[in-house]
Amino acid sequence: MSFAKFATFVALVAAAAPALAHIEMVDPAPLRSPKNPNAGASTDYTYTDPLKGDGSNFPCKGYAGDGGPAVATLNAGSSYPVKLAGSAVHGGGSCQFSLSYDGGKTWGVIHQIIGGCPTENASYDVPVPAGMPSATGALFAWSWFNKIGNREMYMNCAVVDVLGGSGSMELPRMFEANNGNGCVTPETYDVDFASPQVSCANPITPDQKVTLGSGAPASPPVSTSTPPTTSAPADPPASSEPAGTTPPPTTGGANAWDAAKVYVSGDSACYNGQMYSAKWWTQGETPGAGDVWGTGSGAC
Q1: Contact 94, 112 (CB under 8 A)
Q2: Separation of alpha carbons 265 and 280, rounded Å
Q3: Which region, left, alpha or beta, applies to residue 10 given φ > 0 means left and ψ of -120 to 50 means alpha?
Q4: What is the pTM of this model?
Q5: Tell me, what DSSP letter sits at residue 26?
Q6: Residue 185's CB: how many other CB atoms inside 10 A?
């Protein structure tokens, strides 16, 4: 091989290395991804790159406004098999799967995995909440905070349709860090979205809710520190309990499980004398009947 050909080969390998180093979502096919048949001349061949550290291409690598036809349909009350590709997982980390109904301005989390995400060429069955309102041309995002290596945020977004009900739904706000917002995740740590150990004054936590669907506020999401109106207030007088709610148990230190209430990672509920802890977003799923609930601190 001549020196010129060898030098060209080395340059090509070096150029390809970043694309081989990380993980990308391939189904649903993201905006401008080589996997997206609608990408055309705007195809991004560096799709495995993280978001820029200054936040200039947040969200969706700067492609949230592209629009275009939906590449997948998510059915409320069912799950969608999200597929990732790549082998350099940087120790794993934590992932979130989110939806936006306003072109990427507001993101609500529908599923999350704390630790060990992603794995090589992974596939995840992402549950779509049963009460999710219908939407045409919504944005679906997979975001990832790697455990080992540079402090980065990865985010791939796809246009999807959602088949569900009407109205709106309250969801936890999507976590952000390492993208110019002043928050940095520590290395060798799996980000726990319920209590993220990030170096910033105001980290995004699950108590900060957003509303997707009809009637959603146009203003930025705000923190909701009080319980939802569908749950019973703590220690209310017997005469003031809202109709149709379950009063708190006399022991256990937490309200009884409420099928109408939204629970997020770390929330506790008492059911049939046993305390349970939610692993991720859930509503209407009976404690003990599925993977979303873990056994909590014992009897209640």
Answers
A1: yes
A2: 4
A3: alpha
A4: 0.68
A5: E
A6: 24
Q: How far is CA 180 from CA 8, 62, 153, 270, in A?
A: 36, 14, 10, 40
Neighbour tally for 13: CB within 10 Å: 10
Q: CA quadruple 51, 53, 58, 59: dihedral positive or negative?
A: positive
- Residue 55: the pLDDT is 93
Which residue bears the tokens 């081989």? Answer: 20
Nearest-angstrom CA–CA distance, 110 and 127: 7
For 222-239, letters b (16+ CB in 10 Å) and e give eeeeeeeeebbbeeeeee
**Spatial separation of the C-alpha atoms in residues 229 and 261, rounded to whole Å:** 9
Is 21 strand, coil or helix? Answer: helix
CA-angle at 245, arms to 244 and 251, nearest 5°: 150
Q: Which two tokens stand for residue 169?
A: 């739904």
SS3 3: helix
Residues of the chain with pLDDT under 70: 1-21, 215-254, 264-265, 280-281, 297
Place of tokens 């309250």: 170
Q: Measured on CA atoms in the order 186, 191, 192, 196, is the torsion positive or negative? A: positive
What tokens appear for 193 in the block? Answer: 């979205």
